[in-house]
Amino acid sequence: MAFVQSITIYPIKSLDGLNLKSCNITEKGSLHMDRAWVLKNTEGRTVNAKKYPTIQKIRAYYDPKAWTVRLTVNGKEETFTMGEETQRMAQFFSDYFTETILLENDMSRGFPDDDENNGPTIVSTRTYEELLQWFPHLDLDNLRLRFRANIELGDCPEPFWEDRLFAQPGVNRRFTLGDVEVIGKNPCPRCAVPTRNPLSGEREQDFMHQFTKKRQEKLPSFAPEAQFDHYYRLCVNTLIPDTEVGKELRVGDLVDA
Asked: Based on the structure, what is the number of domains in the chain?
């Protein structure tokens, strides 16, 4: 039976993730601390891997007990207390990008990629294993960094099993992860980020074309094809109802779909 194999949050949007054994649901239906901080320039535009590929050269190592983050890039390394050293952290990024960078924080909702469907994104290990057949020069960790899902499911019997977790356009597909009710909305449309080496930001020219071709070719018969106006889609976008606020999602939780 499919279960929650791992939970990953990304406290600073576009930087490395943090694996957790459990995570609470916020009042706005996000995972606690996921994309809680975002970098912005002085024009208010988000500084992320879509627009600033060199952000992918920055490594972030979190200590969830102390809520510190150690940032390293180009031989420079500094440790910051999250929420208490915002200005100093902003200066670190400003020095790196050679422009003024600001940090914004939203603990209740975060800064999700999908503003309408801000619940955790879901994929299965079995799907990643299928993608390794398409891109044999990659490994599982590399794929995880490219697609940045929050929840990875184990014991799925086939690739893209998670495509069962959404229905036709406009229809809510309800399921549970342990005690937490989740609404599956759609297959996540991807941007340029997965086409790049997640450690350097360098683009692989044929990645999107090859992915799209194989995704269409391997689309499961149970996947609602009306959701695929294009096939450059992977992971499930979700919503979490207000009734689930404060509940805890845990590694090992069973999926009841």
From this structure: 2
- 17 and 49 housed in the same domain: no
Domain that holds residue 89: 37-105
CATH number, domain of 202, equals 2.40.33
d(CA 116, CA 229): 18
Type and span of the H or E element at 134: helix 125-134
Other Cβ atoms less than 10 A from the Cβ of 102: the count is 16
237 close to 186: Cβ distance less than 8 angstroms: yes
12-32 as b/e: b if 16+ CB within 10 A: bbbbbbbebeebebbebbbbb
Shared domain for 101 and 224, answered yes or no, is no
Under 8 Å between Cβ of 150 and 180: no
Cβ atoms of residues 123 and 147 within 8 Å: yes
pLDDT of residue 44: 95
pLDDT at 49: 94
Residues 4-13: what's their mean pLDDT?
A: 98
